[in-house]
Design a protein that fits this description.
The chain contains 26 helices and 15 strands. It has 3 domains: 127-358, Clc chloride channel, CATH 1.10.3080; 379-467 and 479-574, Clc chloride channel (Orthogonal Bundle); 585-715, Roll (CBS-domain), CATH 3.10.580.20. Strand 9 (622-626) and strand 10 (634-639) form a beta hairpin. The protein is 51% helix and 7% strand. By secondary structure, it is an alpha/beta fold. Belongs to the chloride channel (TC 2.A.49) family. InterPro entries: CBS_dom (IPR000644), CBS_dom_sf (IPR046342), Cl-channel_core (IPR014743), ClC (IPR001807).
Amino acid sequence: MDNRGFQQGSFSSFQSSSSDEDLMDIPETAMDFSMRDDVPPLDREIEGEKSYNGGGIASSNRIMDFLEEPIPGVGTYDDFNTIDWVREKSRDRDRHREITNKSKESTWALIHSVSDAFSGWLLMLLIGLLSGSLAGLIDISAHWMTDLKEGICTEGFWFNHEHCCWNSQQVTFEDRDKCPEWNSWSQLIISMDEGAFAYIVNYFMYVLWALLFAFLAVSLVKVFAPYACGSGIPEIKTILSGFIIRGYLGKWTLVIKTITLVLAVSSGLSLGKEGPLVHVACCCGNILCHCFNKYRKNEAKRREVLSAAAAAGVSVAFGAPIGGVLFSLEEVSYYFPLKTLWRSFFAALVAAFTLRSINPFGNSRLVLFYVEFHTPWHLFELVPFILLGIFGGLWGALFIRTNIAWCRKRKTTQLGKYPVIEVLIVTAITAILAFPNEYTRMSTSELISELFNDCGLLDSSKLCDYENRFNTSKGGDLPDRPAGAGVYSAMWQLALALILKIVITIFTFGMKIPSGLFIPSMAVGAIAGRLLGVGMEQLAYYHHDWAIFNSWCSQGADCITPGLYAMVGAAACLAKEEFAHKTLAMDVMKPRRNDPLLTVLTQDSMTVEDVETIISETTYSGFPVVVSRESQRLVGFVLRRDLIISIVPPYTPPTLKLRNILDLSPFTVTDLTPMEIVVDIFRKLGLRQCLVTHNGRLLGIITKKDVLKHIAQMANQDPDSILFN
């Protein structure tokens, strides 16, 4: 974000004022970024000259050096600014060196040194415990509130449908989801469970509860924590790249996101809770960082903790500690030292076992989708797997383009001003269309579990309603067999569910409620995979003598596993697009041909008045420093905020020595560097800008916005259509 204002007089006025117009008029003061000796020659003393020496007015012509006398505020960060990684790591090394040296002086200092080293592991333990506990609370609450839309348990209203019927003595195996202790709303209101009127009552209550949950979710987000909406993963990646977003990981965001995530999932909208769980875990990590000075006062160290917290979030979302570490390492983190790898794994393990001890799924397992496939896939099945991959790519392209278009419409029209109404409309449409279809009425996680399931003798699902289902000669494994009426009915319902999921997810993602995209995307792919899997299974059964089947699929054999196709389809809908770049850095940098020259500061030939003019006429977040305008030899880069703070002390000397706020090693690329490398550098290093040089001469600058516009152009999109909040 561009820093659009600076102030005058003192640092306190810098914090409270926002005017650019009332700067101190000190045109005789020169700016000096050079590395020359700070001590002026003795024969250059000028009697009677007054200058500020850190303690008041003095008679010596001493050059002010902020390396020795830092101004309060230099080195801190405003909201929507990027941290200085080199500065933060240097601070941590100095702190660690000081603690190590003091540890040799006394026993207490040694104890302090040991506790400082152990504090990181203690913090990981606390993050794992808190993340696992909150994830268990969210899972249990969401399951109960989802079932609340259909009925209530008379033995205890806090039991969900499954738990209510566990201890019932009047349940048969075929109807194990029906028990007298669980009453639908039609039974409670009109004492009827069947018939058209009972169906209408249950329909009405389902829609009513969905609207209530959605209204509470969007209202709480809008009033108390606007940052609690969405998935949170893109913003977490931005923060881990070094960007500052105050309040995004605060306590109010944690509380509201935890509550509204339960409400949003329970409303039946096409969204998931797995992505937002990463945000919840990172909120836990950020809040707990304030208990340890080492992490509270250092932004780079705090991001090491957030990387571990992200791993813990994925661990509790999917019950996969190793997967969480890999996700943090490969997808969200920019700085990931070896010690963070082990601490992330420790935090993910603690979080996973905490969740397991709570046992929200009731099966004593960690994983969200537990499946067992007994039949290996065959080489020929790569063909339908490729088809699923193509479907996943088409779905991804369709979703990205249509969702971006819808988000742009939301932002540029009156629709964006009424988020509550938008959420209620989408929820009403979703609930009305979802209730008649049992596969859209159930929660998305339950739907995916059923689609992944490999049919066995004990399954009563319509997806397993095959003819001759109990006629098996292979023990517990069932051979391929003709589909029954239940399977055909399920295929039609799943086809309709696929259309609804594809369409409604486009309009759901991006609303002002917590929403994840993992589960809806997996559901779309799993439905498509199961449909294709059943089709292949029936094709192999009725045409086992075809050349493509007769070599490996004999009649009565267990050849095709439809659940495996559902899993492949779910994975296919989670791919990332890669871009191939053929341009060079000189094609993207600014200034371009016929553009105004790049705004720069010179090393030692500018006055404070010159700098004030540049700051007041521009909104850039920083400026390159060159030796002179003629040579354009690059010296370094100075941040706008540090520059503003440094030129407003109440007593300004004739020469301001500002070498300590100058970054002497800004990231640079040559003008012939391929943009593919530049984009990779921005992604992995979390840069906000990099300078373009040719033989040491400054040519231009590439910012993060320039990179995003370039990516949009490579995707055949309008570069000016990119939305920057």
